[in-house]
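Notes, p. 3: input format for complexes.
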Amino acid sequence: MSLLSVSELQTHFIFHDIDNQLREACALNKVNLTLNRGEVLGIVGETGAGKSLTAQSICGLLRPPARIVGGSVKFDGRELLSLPDDELNAIRGADIAMVVQNPRSSLDPLTRIGEQLVRIHQTHTGGSLEISRQKAMEMMQAVGIPDPQGRFTAWPHELSGGMAQRVLIAMALMNSPKLLIADEPTTGLDVTVQAQILDLLRGLVSRFDMASMIITHDLGIVAHYCDEVAVMFAGEIIEQGKIRDVFLKPAHPYTQQLLAATPEQLHLGTKNQLGGPPPDLFNLPTGCLSQDRCPLATNACQNRPPVVKISSGHTARCHFAKPLKTSRGKKNG
Ligand SMILES: Nc1ncnc2c1ncn2[C@@H]1O[C@H](COP(=O)(O)OP(=O)(O)O)[C@@H](O)[C@H]1O
Ligand code: SF4
Ligand SMILES: [Mg+2]
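Output follows (333 residues plus adenosine-5'-diphosphate):
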């Protein structure tokens, strides 16, 4: 059984506009994902693709007007979507931990970092202060903070960006999570520090036998640090599979476009994205969501494309995606 199994997850924005008309946007469209311990899954896509909403939906961190309207999120054998708030809170921050971008804004500027680490442990375990202090020291060491004893009493403003992100990762590890979700964990850090932080995350996944989800718009990060990748577009996973399969044999035209684009293009605002803006989530086209931007679109694309199995574990949602043939000419699978 997978540690995390997300099926047909649907998240909508539902609200009344200024004319009191009910408005509904489909922000996540039947997302399916699985993740096992020891694995790192990359979620990739341009800005606005629904990557962060996927993480927030899994963790129960959505804020109105976003609401889950369908599907299932099973974690460690439990259905999270039907859990009462107190049980979900107990899982969040303990079994599932999240690291976000801009570490400085996630740290309390008025509390010394050691105390912030201890507080997280105390909130979830309620154990002795001494044990929490010991754990904080261990985790500072695990994330490569030099002189943990000395840094324990440091203020957040005394840390560099990279060091602040290490502290945030240490905070995420304080309650020994089974799943670590990192949402753009290195955006804004310089390239050398990015690599150090990602090496660290990858190493921690093996060391603590966790599963990890790395959300990024940077395909280079996915290629280097992940085992599997899910490519998102307009709230949908349009291709997923093992890194090697998706990167060497991308089956969806959008993945092919992504692989040909630069990280800068992917991170630009919606007006500048690949081949034009994404579809209006309030008024999605029938058929393939990529059709207005797809160079290969035909009339057939006005019908919703099926998820095609390209090879074992590799799927793509496109009318023209084809299963790979084996060397004997048989279809893979
Ligand atoms: N409160 C909201 N109301 C309406 N749309 C929203 C809201 N929050 C996010 N969105 C939209 O949902 C889509 C997905 O957002 P997000 O998951 O943050 O994208 P990503 O992390 O891939 O950049 C975007 O189009 C964004 O504009
Ligand atoms: S179904 Fe059509 S529009 Fe959609 S990705 Fe495939 S070719 Fe392009
Ligand atoms: Mg995001």
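Residues 191-207 form the longest helix (17 residues).
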